[in-house]
């Protein structure tokens, strides 16, 4: 079933924080838009795929969306429950009504008509007649706001399909409560992996975590002091300060299997998109032996629960939890763009022009600059569009 064409000025793909921020910024300038979302709710990664103890890793002033600060009674580190209420209130305040169940399958710029044409398939609609239907949207501008965390990624591991225990991704994990006394291997030592390992250990799981590459581990207070210092100091000095302070705080972690990179945390974040780990207590458990650090996973021994590691050692596990992040699928539906996004769906241009493509194409939340960077980008996009349509 084809439901016809909806015409507007701006088409936003994605109703997570990036899409909501864009919509709010456009709304304030009275610019018409539609916002398309394949799931049945806003911010589905937070609503449906987050663990219970999750708090935003930075203090709230670095995580609020544009034009509406967090309520003053919210704690410094906002828990997921409060963040979801804030997002609902944000959508209500700016009258954001996404077109849910719209799975974008195709988007291409029409050179003759100077418009973007977007095809969306209706998935999981309210009735059987809607399911599988197609909707078309046309707009002068297109904003890719699908976010960094759009499609679950689990790396290929030899023998994984024959593992006899439980295999899950971090997006399926809620709490360590049901893993008490189980041997759990967390693969991936980013912020989610390290916090989930901490939560598992707190609930009595026999927890191990794979640390595959060097990483910066920073205390909460030093991270926030570093972020504030960036406004008055060059980033290389802030990096030097953070490395020194956290060497003092955590000591030498190499004897626990954790290497520190040569480059500073903010340099790696800007250049490579590699986030430092904000410690929530995991390091203390690693030092006490409650959490075991293991090297890169090599393979699963056929037909059992034995996992072999790069150093030749092997251990038995009941559960393997992959905290290995996400991939983007933008390349499957966005046609004709060779300038703005790379093959992995992240911004190609360097800061500060990473948000701006050609023919009215923009991206937001795809430059690995967090919610703080997203807030700034959406305002730039909205003002740029306003200036173009006002000519």
Describe the structure.
This protein is an alpha/beta fold and 391 residues long. The chain is built from nine helices and 18 strands. Strands 1, 2, 3, 4, 5 and 18 form a six-stranded mixed β-sheet that branches. Helix 1 (17-28) packs parallel to helix 9 (370-389) and helix 5 packs antiparallel against helix 6 (235-250). The longest helix has 20 residues, at 370-389. The radius of gyration is 22 Å and the shape is globular. The protein starts with a strand and ends with a helix. The mean pLDDT is 94.
Q: How large is the count of helical segments?
A: 9
What structural class do you assign from the helix and strand content? alpha/beta
Mean pLDDT: 94
Radius of gyration based on Cα positions:
22 Å
Major sheet attributes: 6 strands, mixed
Kindly state the number of beta strands: 18
Q: pLDDT under 50 segments (min length 5)?
A: none
Query: Which shape, going by the Cα principal axes?
Result: globular
Strand fraction equals 15-25%
What sequence of helices (H) and strands (E) makes up the elements? EHEHHEEEEEEHEEHHHEHEEEEEEEH
What fraction, in percent, of the residue positions are helical? Answer: 25-40%
N- and C-termini, Cα separation: 38 Å
Q: Which helices and strands appear, and what pairs or packs with what?
A:
Layout (H helix, E strand, L loop, with lengths): L1 E12 L3 H12 L4 E4 L7 H5 L31 H14 L8 E9 L4 E8 L11 E11 L6 E2 L13 E4 L13 E5 L3 H12 L3 E5 L6 E2 L1 H10 L5 H16 L14 H8 L4 E2 L3 H7 L2 E4 L2 E4 L5 E4 L4 E3 L2 E4 L3 E2 L33 E3 L6 H20 L2
Parallel strand pairs: 1-2, 1-5, 5-18, 7-16, 8-9, 8-16, 9-12, 10-11
Antiparallel strand pairs: 3-4, 4-5, 6-17, 13-14, 14-15
Helix pairs in contact: 1-9, 5-6
């Amino acid at each position: 079933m084809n439901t016809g064409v909806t015409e507007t000025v701006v088409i936003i793909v994605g109703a997570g924080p990036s899409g909501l921020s864009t919509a709010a910024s456009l709304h304030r300038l009275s610019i018409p838009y539609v916002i398309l979302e394949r799931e049945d709710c806003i911010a589905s990664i937070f609503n449906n795929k987050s663990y219970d103890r999750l708090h935003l890793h930075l203090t709230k002033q670095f995580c609020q969306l544009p034009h509406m600060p967090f309520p003053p009674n919210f704690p410094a580190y906002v828990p997921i429950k409060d963040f979801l209420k804030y997002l609902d209130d944000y959508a209500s305040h700016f009258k954001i009504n996404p077109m849910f169940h719209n799975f974008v399958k195709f988007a291409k710029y029409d050179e003759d008509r100077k418009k973007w044409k977007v095809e969306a398939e209706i998935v999981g609609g309210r009735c059987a007649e809607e399911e599988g239907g197609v909707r078309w949207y046309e707009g002068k501008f297109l904003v890719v706001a699908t976010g960094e965390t759009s499609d679950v990624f689990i790396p290929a591991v030899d023998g994984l399909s024959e593992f006899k225990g439980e295999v899950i991704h971090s997006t399926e994990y809620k709490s360590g409560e049901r893993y008490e006394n189980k041997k759990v291997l967390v693969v991936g030592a980013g912020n989610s992996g390290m916090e989930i390992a901490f939560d598992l250990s707190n609930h009595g799981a026999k927890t191990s975590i794979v640390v595959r590459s060097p990483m910066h581990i920073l205390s909460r207070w030093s991270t926030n002091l570093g972020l504030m210092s960036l406004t008055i100091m060059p980033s290389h000095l802030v990096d030097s300060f953070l490395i020194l302070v956290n060497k003092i705080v955590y000591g030498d972690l190499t004897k626990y299997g954790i290497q520190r990179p040569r480059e500073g945390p903010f340099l790696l974040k800007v250049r490579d998109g590699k986030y430092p780990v904000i410690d929530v207590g995991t390091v203390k458990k690693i030092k006490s032996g409650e959490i075991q650090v293991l090297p890169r996973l090599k393979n699963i021994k056929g037909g059992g629960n034995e996992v072999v590691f790069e150093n030749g050692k092997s251990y038995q596990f009941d559960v393997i939890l992959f905290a290995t992040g996400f991939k983007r699928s933008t390349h499957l539906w966005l046609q004709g763009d060779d300038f703005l996004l790379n093959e992995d769906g992240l911004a190609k241009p360097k800061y500060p022009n990473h948000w701006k493509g050609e023919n009215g194409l923009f991206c937001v939340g795809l430059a690995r600059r967090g919610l703080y960077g997203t807030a700034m980008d959406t305002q730039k996009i909205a003002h740029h569009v306003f200036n173009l349509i006002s000519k």
